[in-house]
Input
Amino acid sequence: SACGKGLGAIPSSTVGYEKRFNPALQFHDEQKFVDYILADQPETPFYFAVMKRVNKDGPELLCNLAPVKSPAPNELPAITRQGLTIDVGPAAEFATAHVPGTINVPLNMLAQWAGFFVDYDRPLHLVAEPSTLPEVLKRLRSIGIDNVAGAFDATAVKASGLRTESYRSESPQQLRERIAGGEVLLLDVRAATEFQEGHIPRAEHRFLGKLLREIGALDRSQPVVAQCQGGGRSAIATSILQRAGFDVTNMAGGYAAWSAAGLSGTGSLSMGH
Output
């Protein structure tokens, strides 16, 4: 969880239980305790600062929120040029066809990742099926994203002919020679701890949550391959990179598929910011 490492699943606890079973409370040396607490912590989402305020002051009442508009599909191209539009559909469908300028954060990953990408002070637009929109809004509001200006009907967008862009997904076996030869820039978008535990030779680490904000530091002249552990996070990264004008391919199956294919692991450490 983004809230911390090794969080327990039990609904409540006692001091006695924690003293007996909590690994952090087994240390008698202060420095060892501090080192344990600080090691392998998940990356802190940018929205945590917002959530501190929301948790203190309370969330905005739903009755006070502006209604979410339903713009016509022909408004979508102009809106994507003005701000962020998130398509919450499945990654495989987005890869096949989507509207240029949109990024893809599937519904099942929305609460975990949207807060890294959304500017809370600017209006957000969505592409979503009407049947899933209430759940989409619920998940966004759970992390304080209330400024949803509009939601495009995904079915109407599909029928509009505006989905003119797609991206490639290729297997590790298809990509290995180009990666080894330096023909592509391999971006590993996993957490830093995952990268340090093992990664593909020549990979550069760029944590997914920071990618949109740090994308200006990347060289657009070189083709890019996005890779994570299983292909889900790198699909989000691929949509972000394509929106910024990169020639990008998603590595299907990620590092898990690379390892399962018996391809070489951990190369020289190359950490981005």
User: Anything to note?
Assistant: The chain has three domains: 1-42, 48-160, 168-260. The mean pLDDT is 90. The domain at 48-160 is CATH 3.40.250.10 (Oxidized Rhodanese; domain 1). The longest helix spans residues 232-243.
